[in-house]
Amino acid sequence: MRVPRPAPMAHLLPSLLVLAAAAPALGQTQAAEPAPWRAGASGSGLQVVVVSASRYEQFASDLALSMDVIGSRQLEQGQMMDIRDAAKALPNVSVKRAPARFSVTGRGNAVGADGNAGFSIRGQGGNRVTMLVDGIRLPRSYINGSNAFGRDSVDLGLVKRIEIVRGPTSALYGSDGLAGLVNFISHEPADFLKDAGHGAPALGGKAWLGHGSDDHGTTLGAALAGRLGASAEWLLSASGHRAGALGNLGSNDAAHVERTAPNPQRQRGQSLLAKLVWRPLAGQRHVLTAEHVAKDGWVDLLSSRTKPPFTGSAATIAAAVVGEDSAKEMTRQRLGWDGRWTLQSAWADRLQASFTWQDSSARDSGKSLRNDGGVRSRDTSYEERALQLTLQAEKHLPIAAGWSQ
């Protein structure tokens, strides 16, 4: 039975606005904007800046870790519409996906029931891989018999880059980082606006359209960003997706258990991202984020029907499956505040604090029609709510040139 959920925490956003407005000025130097690319120490070129390996901005070339960064240009040029597309070009990284062949009333079989199940790094997947969006944990995977809930609760249309760390990350992120980490970094207004200055536009954005031939999927989205004076910027981004069944090489399209062609299927998805970036004083930066991702699908399980003519005892004939379908739905909502201060004090150079509320739910329901007119149904749901509070201070101490002697 589905557990009733309380009303969304609509009062949280005003509280975060008050908290951000009340934050004092703790520095006199303007903080640098986090960027995926910055000039290298030698000034000879650009280097990749990542945040996932150590929880703060650092050159990827300075890390003793094996990791990959998929930037916005790669996402666009590779026409990556879901996490499976993102994993195709990465060695030792994969995303499992298979056509639906589960049943409502038959023996438990979760093959393909969870769609894009999640990332597998060096042969280890599931909840052994930490998956984050802007540093916030995505819902875990869950399998119960023929019901399975994957971890594809992110829309790549809202993402500007993906950071993948191979190898254990448990020291920083907990025991579920045994195999590695995948962090999705969402867009910010600065990604669509030029540097402030004379003649700089007050609005910017983009629109995109994508199509996938494997499931005849189409994605349409748009993003718009603007400035509110000299200290604030905003972003609104929305995306929609429609698709059918994943194609295969099956040629038998019979409406019974011997079917090898894909079952009739339709999938839909909608997502929305809103951000407000505010710099009230020098060295101070606050980001308010609201995100909503929803996906649902329906499958006509022709491959679960009993092949006619029906034979056997009277009870067997009466229980023969003559119709079966299944529906899946998933939603994830996130509301958060992230604050950063440049201090340059004796105890810390920079301070970062964040508070995030996230509510995720998934539902797998189906019904089966028997030959005698009876109807059997299954309804399984999984819900995960989280409050995440992070406080991090950074301090760099110089070491004397002759310390090793």
Report on this structure.
By secondary structure, the chain is mainly beta. Helices cover 8% and strands 44% of the residues. The chain contains five helices and 20 strands. The chain has helices at residues 12-22, 72-77, 83-87, 170-173, 314-318, and strands at residues 37-39, 46-50, 58-59, 66-70, 93-95, 119-121, 129-133, 136-137, 142-144, 147-149, 159-166, 180-186, 203-212, 217-228, 232-243, 265-278, 284-300, 321-342, 350-370, 375-394. The protein has an eight-stranded antiparallel beta sheet with strand order 13-14-15-16-17-18-19-20, covered by helices on one side. It has a five-stranded mixed beta sheet with strand order 4-11-12-7-8. β7 and β8 (136-137) form a beta hairpin. The radius of gyration is 25 Å and the shape is elongated. The chain starts with 11 loop residues before the first helix and ends in an 11-residue tail after the last strand.
